[in-house]
Amino acid sequence: MFGFFFKLIMLVFLTTASYLAYNSTNQINIESGIESSERIYSLKNAEFFGSDITGDLSYKVFAKKAKTEQGNDLIIMDQVSLKYFSDELNNWIILSDKGEMFDGAKLLILTGNVLIQNNSKIRPSKIETEYVEINPAKMTIATNKPVKITLNNNTIEAFGFNAVLEEDQIKFSTNRTAITTE
């Protein structure tokens, strides 16, 4: 009988201590939010979808973590992937460590280990860089940073490029001229 009451008292004590610990840590977050008068919204495993003019699903942006502030048009993301739902020739997937989405998904900036892959069996290709700006709806990408492009087992290294993924067209930028490949 003594063991039962001892266990009951310990259970009540642990429950109360857990509640007080949770409440005190939660209170710190509430106070800092009130002081700054800004609300920060965050999501885990966030998905953003885009469609073409006919209303068909054309791309999906996935982020392990996404956050934004109230009244701000910027969404900051971690572990980002952008997948296009297009034909078999344009099976593009773009991955990066971090990303920022502006203006209702009209501009997506990806940074840190950016990998752009076309997993098409006919025209496989891979582009690697540290920074890229993307208009997801138009399938256009651009960077002014060093890039490494692998097409049909041939590697090209350049400094900056513009590309229209849907048309499979890449324009390389140099200090003097622009070179176009198709």
Q: In brief, what are we looking at here?
A:
With 182 residues, this protein is α+β, with helices and mostly antiparallel strands.
Give a quick account of the main beta sheet: strands, pairing sense, barrel closure: 10 strands, antiparallel
**What is the tally of beta strands?**
10
Structural Rg = 24 Å
- Give the number of helices: 1
Low-confidence stretches: 25-34, 176-180
State the end-to-end distance: 84 Å
Overall pLDDT level: 78
The computed structural class is alpha+beta
Spatial order of the strands in the main sheet? Answer: 1-2-3-4-5-6-7-8-9-10
What order do the SSEs take from the amino end to the carboxyl end, as H and E? HEEEEEEEEEE
Task: State the shape.
Answer: elongated
Content of β-strand = over 45%
Helix content: 10-25%
Task: Summarize the structure in words.
- This protein is of the alpha+beta class.
- It contains one helix and ten strands.
- It has a ten-stranded antiparallel sheet, with no helix packed on it.
- A hairpin with a 7-residue loop joins strand 3 and strand 4.
- The longest helix is centred in the first third of the chain and has 35 residues.
Descriptors for this entry?
182 residues, 1 helix, disordered C terminus
Map the helices and strands.
Layout: H1 2-36, E1 40-51, E2 57-69, E3 75-84, E4 92-102, E5 107-118, E6 125-135, E7 140-151, E8 154-164, E9 169-173, E10 178-181
Antiparallel strand pairs: 1-2, 2-3, 3-4, 4-5, 5-6, 6-7, 7-8, 8-9, 9-10
